[in-house]
Write a structure and sequence with these properties.
It comes from Flavobacterium supellecticarium. The protein has one helix and eight strands, in the order αββββββββ. It is mainly beta and 143 residues long. The protein has one domain: Beta Barrel (Lipocalin), CATH 2.40.128. The protein has an eight-stranded antiparallel β-barrel.
Length: 143
């Protein structure tokens, strides 16, 4: 009985440690904050100490082949599927800041902060100027 109890505690400890180490890296289901509709799956990765997020799945079959028509620069007319929408966030305390997020439906690039809310929720805030002028979406981790 004692061995089983120690095993349970060990497994729980390792699971908690690995969950914290994972941080924001992984796949996340995006939800439109205005409609509540699930829109896509974004895979967040880390490269060179910065965080990036790429659209790896579009959930609405009618929009699978959509392009970023209103985007500018290198993103103009690119397919939304495969598009990097989170660009260059840096870890600052318990959140990621100093990067940008692209809204491919509007073609606009916003300043961005990202912060974990527990293990399976991610608060993604896009804003213009100061953080007070913006909006937040809560994404859910894909298991």
């Amino acid at each position: 009985m004692r061995k089983q109890l120690l095993t349970v505690f060990f497994v729980a400890f390792v699971g908690l440690f690995s969950a914290q180490a994972q941080g924001v890296v992984g796949k996340w289901k995006t939800v439109d904050d205005e409609t509540g509709e699930a829109k896509s799956i974004v895979e967040i990765t880390e490269s060179g100490g910065k965080i990036y997020g790429k659209v790896v799945e579009i959930l609405n079959p009618a929009k699978k082949n959509a392009k970023c028509k209103d985007c500018s620069g290198e993103d103009k007319d690119k397919p939304i599927l495969g598009l990097t929408i989170i660009k260059g966030l840096k870890k600052s305390g318990d959140e990621y800041t100093d990067g940008k997020i692209l809204d491919p439906n509007k073609g606009k690039l916003y300043k961005c902060t990202v912060k974990l809310d527990g293990h399976d929720k991610l608060n993604v805030r896009g804003y213009v100027g100061i953080s007070l002028i913006g909006r937040t979406q809560t994404w859910s981790r894909v298991k």
